[in-house]
Specification:
By secondary structure, this protein is mainly β. Helix content is 9%, strand content 46%.
Amino acid sequence: MRNSLVKLLLVITLFLAACQVQSSIPSLLSPQAHVEVIGEPLPHDPQAFTQGLLVHDSYFYESTGLVGQSTFRKVEMESGQVLAQTQLKPEFFGEGLALLDGHFYQLTWRNRIGLIYDAETLEEIGSFPVDGEGWGLTTDGQSLIRSDGSATLTWHEPLSFAPIKSLQVNLEGQPVTQLNELEYIEGLLYANVFLTDTILRIDPASGQVLTVIDASTLRQESTKTEINNVLNGIAWDPETKSLYLTGKNWPELYKVKIVDGPLPTATTRP
């Protein structure tokens, strides 16, 4: 009964957020770039409610969400096999994930706490306070960068998570809300917009959106009927210069390239 109530409340929250997204950022309907899949899709756990994704030493590391189901896991890239997993406390809702200076940092949504893991052993070694909601998390190599569902990104000190600065993200002079999963790639920030198939390329110095990227071809027909099953995993492999995308409860994960120009009308996912 409790799980059913939690799921119902989550669906209502997502529906209201979807209404806000559609009304506040109509410019996202005009993308300047799109993604194309490279090679065959990789397997992804369809039970993984993906909240954070990254690549380290040729493995995926993933944060999954939902109350009572949240995890931090290490995943083999080619097979999708979960090699190691930590179950979060039942009351925690896992969110964004980042790796900095030998530590994994995992946010929780509204629990006002984040978790720290040793990058070698994957053991939980500490925690940090979060002032507000935790959504996406990434790093520029010096600081941790957090989204909270608003148009604001906040830079934090590692370990203590003390705030350093904040920045509003704007598109055509208007703030873009519902910023979610984050990835820092070669000096630029990438953020997906919650409940859309859109990824933004952002200047981290000014907060200006540089490119609106359409990733709508990735979502399978089987996931389109579930409001929860949205794009929500962006991972960059700096060793191979490869970009990977997936979503909540998606059965596949994709290596992609970003191509200038809107998506051709007749394009369908391979």
